[in-house]
UniProtKB/TrEMBL annotation:
<dbReference type="Pfam" id="PF00293">
    <property type="entry name" value="NUDIX"/>
</dbReference>
<feature type="domain" description="Nudix hydrolase">
    <location>
        <begin position="33"/>
        <end position="167"/>
    </location>
</feature>
<dbReference type="InterPro" id="IPR015797">
    <property type="entry name" value="NUDIX_hydrolase-like_dom_sf"/>
</dbReference>
<keyword id="KW-0413">Isomerase</keyword>
<dbReference type="InterPro" id="IPR020084">
    <property type="entry name" value="NUDIX_hydrolase_CS"/>
</dbReference>
<protein>
    <submittedName>
        <fullName>Isopentenyldiphosphate isomerase</fullName>
    </submittedName>
</protein>
<keyword id="KW-0378">Hydrolase</keyword>
<dbReference type="GO" id="GO:0016853">
    <property type="term" value="F:isomerase activity"/>
</dbReference>
<dbReference type="GO" id="GO:0016787">
    <property type="term" value="F:hydrolase activity"/>
</dbReference>
<dbReference type="InterPro" id="IPR000086">
    <property type="entry name" value="NUDIX_hydrolase_dom"/>
</dbReference>
Amino acid sequence: MKNNSTELFPIIDEQGHTIGKATRKECHNGSKLLHPVIHLQIFNKYGNLYLQKRAMNKDIQPGKWDTAVGGHVDYGESVEDALFRETREELGITDFSPTFSFSYIFESEIEKEMVYSYYTIYDGLIVPDKDEVETGRFWSIDEIEQNIGKQIFTPNFEIEFQRLQSYLKGLL
């Protein structure tokens, strides 16, 4: 995995407006500088949800199951461009149609992120990047629900999964 501690992220206010910039290291050192990230939830035609198992060399939540795609928006990059870039980098997917679900602020001990969450239906080839992702697979919704709270998933995924369930029920 490349050393990306000097990568530049936009610092934003709670409305999503860029108010500055900082390095990855500055954003992840407990400063709680609010910065944008994207998440993509990938469903197959059967309603199963693809999750990635984070590589063991990740600085945050290594080895835990997480959202199919998650990544930072680079300084000067749009949220949509980051979504397509991260999806290509992490899973090799370039041909998909994302739908915006919602945004929310997630805060951990070391960072504070504005998460822009999208979903898509996709049944094509998925080729995880081994530097970013240990492995990945589709999970049934029941299987996910049975494993919530068992330290298998990242805390952020568990929070977002609950929001996603409510959001999708509102569409049906």
